[in-house]
Amino acid sequence: MENKQRIKRLQETFRKRYEDTGLKSGVFAAPGRVNLIGEHTDYNDGFVLPMALEKKIMAAAQLREDRKVVAYDMNYEPEISFDLDNLVKNKENNWANYLMGVADELQKRDYQLQGLNIVLEGDVPSAAGLSSSAALEVVTAMAFDRLLGLEVDPVEMALLCQAAENNFVGVNWGIMDQYISRLGREGHALMIDCRSNEYELVPFQNENYRIVICNTNVQRSLVDSEYNRRREECSKAVDFFDSKLDKKVTALRDVTVKELEQYESKLPEITAARARHVVTENRRVKESVEALNEGDFVRFGQLMYDSHESLRDDYEVSCEELDILVELAQKQNEALGARMTGAGFGGCTVNLVYEKSTSEFTEALHRGYKKETGIEPDIYVSFPAPGAADFDKEIW
Ligand code: GLA
Fold first, then answer.
1. What are phi and psi of 77, to 5 degrees?
2. Which residue, of 20, 110, 157, 383, is most buried by count of CB atoms within 10 Å of its CB?
3. Would residue 145 show up in a list of annotated catalytic residues for this protein?
């Protein structure tokens, strides 16, 4: 559905549910994302290369006189509400925690908040590794920011949304998802340096190629515990390299491929494999940016395949269904590259495909996956979309 229609539907739903408070109102959006390459590198102070999706969460919101937030999500029943002076985790409706977490982090940073009525709707599939939760956090932060004139710096907004998820929802994710949802740029991927939190724009629009996302539609069951486990394994590797190398090592970002090769045999096998993934993945991101800047999509595609192999064998965050999808892509001439994207253990693959054969590719993938797994996949063709938006629209 077009933005215009979605905005209209949100405004109408809002007017039906809530009284006009006479205070400032607006309509906002924040997108999901797909990571092109650079997986499990963000929390190692490394590099990532995501792009924002056209799929997004949209919100119509209006300030209230009091300190209550009342939220209705058109995709979920029922309405939730909470008090800005009493933020306690909601056990029945988990999505409320993302809004509360954002409010909490804003208040911790001394931003003065006020209550809101807010209606939400979205088309980012949830639990698919396309960051619907980051989109929900960022759209909430945008609503508070714009309606109250807080002027939160975009990178600070991403960081506080990440903190909301870590502190209020409870998984220790990295910065990538909130960052790209807030700062994404149309027609571009962003190479984010997750140590300095700066980014480089990488043009990603070429008539001859398409990004195709394929959703395994399997639930990401182990993801939270395994994610935290990977973080611990990485920090063990950091301690090791810090004690061995003649320089300060505070994250795997500080270790070069050469240093890794020199010492990996001295590490326990699993720790070495985890470090190998992160160190080589950082290099692949840099090489990908070079390839894309030169318009070398064939090289970029190969790096995607290499990334998948590393995630599957060294980092062990893939699963059977993701591997099936990547193998199916690899068997077809239409694809230049494919890999799992996001945290893993389910979710989606991202594929680089020749534009002229996009439909043959998606059909073959659909057929092949269904045949091997019995599961119907969802497939989306995607273009790099803008990050969070304020549509400059009133509700009444
Ligand atoms: C999840 C996290 C990100 C990142 C990816 C893996 O999406 O939210 O911060 O760590 O996994 O690359």
1. -100, 160
2. 157
3. no
Phi then psi for residue 88, to 5 deg, are -125, 140
Domains in the chain: ranges and CATH: 3-203+385-390 (3.30.230.10)
Q: What is the pLDDT of residues 13-43, one digit of tens each?
A: 999 999 999 999 999 999 999 999 999 999 9
Report how far ligand 1's centroid is from the alpha carbon of 377 (Å): 22
pLDDT tens digit sequence for 66-108: 999 999 999 887 899 999 999 999 999 999 999 999 999 999 9
Q: List the one residue out of 342, 352, 233, 266 whose CA is nearest residue 303.
A: 352
Cβ neighbours of residue 271 closer than 8 Å, sequence gap 6 or more? 233, 236, 237, 240
Substitution site in 41, 42, 47 for ligand 1 pocket (most atoms within 8 Å of beta carbon): 42
Pocket of ligand 1 (CB under 6 A): 39-40, 42-43, 173-174, 176-177, 342-343
Taking the centre of ligand 1 as the mean of its atom positions, its distance from the CA of residue 40, in whole angstroms, is: 6
Do 234 and 85 form a contact (C-beta atoms < 8 A)?
A: no
* Active-site option among 73, 145, 177, 254: 177
Q: Write out the two tokens for 314.
A: 């060294």
